[in-house]
Amino acid sequence: MRRRPKHQVFPALRFVTEQRQTNQRRLRLRHWLLLALRCGALAAFASALARPTVAAAAFGDWIIFGILFLAAVGTAWLAIAAWSAERGLLLVGLLGSVGLALCIACLVMFLRFREHGAVGMLGGEEAPVSAVLLFDTSPRMQYQEADQSRLQVAQEHGRWLLSQLPDDSEIGVLGGDRGPASFALDRTLALQSIDSLQTINHGESLPAAIIRAHDLLKTGRHARHELYLFTDLTSASWRSELDQTLTQFDEQEGILLHVVDVGSTQPRNAQIDDISLSQESLAKNGSLTLRTNVLAEGTGGEWSVELLLEDQDPQRPIIVDGKPVLPERKLRGQQTVSVGIDSPQPVEFSLANLGPGIHHGEIRLRGHDGLDLDNVRYFTIEVTDAWPVLVAASPTAVTSYLTDALAPLRLRETGEARFRCDVVDFADVAEIDLMGYRAAALLDPAPLTQRQWRQLTDFVQRGGGLAIFLGREVKDIREFSTKAAEDLLPGPPKRQWSTASAEGIFMSLRDTSHPALRFFQPIKDSLAWNQFPIYRHWTLGQLTNDSVIVMRYSNDQPAIIERVVGAGRVLLMTTPISDPLNIPTRPAWNVLPTDMDPTFFMLINELFEYLAAGNRNVLNHFVGQPVSLTVPKSNENERFQLFIPSGSWQDTRPEEDQLTVTFTDPLGWYRLRSESARDRQWGFAVNLPANETRLDRVDTKTLDSWLGTGKYHLARDRSEINRGIVEARIGRELYPWLVTLTALLLLVESLVANRFYHEAAQ
Amino acid sequence: MSVEQYLKPEVIEQISRLDLRAQFVVQGFLQGLHASPFHGFSVEFSEHRRYATGDDPKDIDWLVYAKTDKFYVKKFEAETNITGYLVMDLSESMGFTYRQKLTKFDYAICLAAALCYLMIHQQDPVGLVTFDVGIRESIRPKSKRSQIATILSVLSRLKPAGRTDIRASLGQLVAMLRHRSLIMIFSDLLTDRERLVEGLRWLRHGGHDVILFHILDEAEVTFPFDDVMQLEDPETGESMEVDGPGYRDSYRQAVEDFRESLRKEAFQSGVDYVPLDTSMQFDKALIEYLHSRRGR
Question: For the whole model, what pTM was predicted?
């Protein structure tokens, strides 16, 4: 039986009462804490049983959210406890502020989750999706490994993936063809689209295709958007528009991106580099040099390099039984090179004794490797008769300096000269049909008549090249300032500049960017221009707006000026090259043509080749470039056939002597032939840039920096694709985290309860 | 307890010793107390006393020594015009004693008597005010030697009873006082803390010096109960069953917190706070307090 407590009057009972109230409050708080811990443990366990999932991309954010939430609850509890224990306003305020800040952070994160649809992703793996299967169709996807090209592997994965997508999903299949993007009407059509995929030599870049796929997904009718990118992950695929793609990815966080890597991790490939031709157009009996490199990735070894050239057959190409029959190709050169990994091996071939006309050829590696596409490079060259050049000169001028430079006697005798020079007096120019010449030269011209100026202007406007070398015969500069002269000249002569110094001035080749001077680029520092002094030259008045200074003297005055007039060009040199050097009473203006020095020889040849070939066709192109051919029609009704490397052909009719070929995706030779006169042929070659077939791969770190870490799933085989789909579609399970949290809460509850009851027992 | 008991020889001796050691007690205590509000006092020679250990040798009167061959020190008397009020809490809680020897009220009377004697002795007028829910008794301040007997006779017939309202009582006291005075409050302060603080601030606002003697019973400080107790508040009648050992530590902490809070409040208000309990010898406590004042 309980003993009756002893009665005692005690005035300070208020302290006991206060203490009891404090104890009761603390006890109540402890009970609440224990209750909260137990409820929390139960809630966490119940949540774990419900197996909630969150978007894999947002999983990290959810974990942070959970930690913040627990921290907020804990801090709030501490703040309440501190307030209850009257610990001081500062501590309570501090804890309260921290708790409030954490709560706000949790709220903000939760709202972000809602905004990005990361909330409520429970189950629903079989819900229909809007999916785009984007295939990298770059030529590198032709790389073969285990008897399968990368594109075939990608197609296999694509077909399998198609069967895995939930029913009623809308599916788009995209390649790099820049065509309109749309979802397929049904799964069968999507499958057909996959089956019909082919590599495209000049397709859309991968970043641009990704943007197109994103744009398509934005129109998808289902809530879940998935983008599957099948690529070999070669770095060449990602070169352009990367920044823009990244921006799109940032904005499109709701789209699940799966990158399926079908590339070879250790590619072994040899390739021929871009071909460098010494010239595309050469004179009959001239010679040509072709230079290139043999490169190897992943494997070295000996390779046989062959040069093949088509026979000139005026009857071919011809269509037989609906198929074009092409001229035969013959081996014109062969070399064996030993190639090391990533160490280019140079190869050089020469061609000579080619007949006039268009010649198509190729340099190829004999044998096969993973990617045969880059084992061959095509080229087209044009061989013409010697270019006719009209040289008009005053009787006192020495024309041989020019004619010997353009067509040296030895070459004229062997028929290898690139130019054929006809020399006439100025007075006879009016009687000559200039259209029979590719270029004309006026050596030290005296004032011309208006008719002569107009005749020359007409010649240039129709594509001819004109070189004018001003000299002592320009006696009245007003004759060079007439309207007819102004239409042709880059600028009127103003006055003569001269120096009494024996050293004189000289030509200065500081800038070789002009096309006529590119030849000098590698040798410009080894040329001794100062060996050929110039004592006198003309200065010019105001140059026309369409004039360009090609070369200057060392006194910075213009030496050679170019003006484009119509389809042709005019080159004006302000000092003559026809001044006799051996007249004691009349000092020469310059000694440029002394002994036909190679420097003068090269300068004259480059200038006249530039003038004569001014409007000729460019014969070698890279894939994707629109090509324009100048095709003079023999009559208005003349029709042409365009033969394309893929084996097809089409009838065409040039407009105003110009034919533009806009579709140049197939690699090889494009041939244009007149239907009426089969020997009238033109053509050009199209190649893939060598760097487009390099197979070096993007590493994961770089891919992360482009696409964002955690914003995509990278897979190599079906199991990885499947895992990625499951993770991305139903998210990552929080089950283990919730079970851990439950255990943690139970542990804390146990510790807290033990402490509380222990204190109470004491 | 009779008047004589309050002035029993040992008590008087203690007080006398205080008196005799006026050089550092009176000057340290009373001068310190009213030096600030009341300027212009002078110190006059009062009498001689025998030199005792602890006295400052500088105070030895060498003329007397030459005449008598004995050491005497000069006693000085402060000429002041300070008026003191002994303010006694008369609530029922003041009548509590756990050991049945000295109630808080008795203890307060002893303390008041000693201070009264001290002030009368230096011819300062001393009055008495008792209060519970309001002022009950008051004796006008006088500096006659008979005043101590008058005060003690009044105190001896008073019996603590009823509740207390210290704020109202101090309010009445402030209204009653005409001049700046030294208010010595003797109370267990078992009342609402906020109201007490408010009353003290009124006093300070009136320009009065305040010494707050917080007197608790020994049991109210130590909580000596070793059993389950049925504790009853004599003023409110509130009763509570308490496990003595279980509550002891927290109770002591609560009392200490209460004293600490009062100490802080008193410091901020410029009030001298002297916590006491009946187990402390009041004379030692008083001297200790005076010493502490002297040290300031």
Answer: 0.54
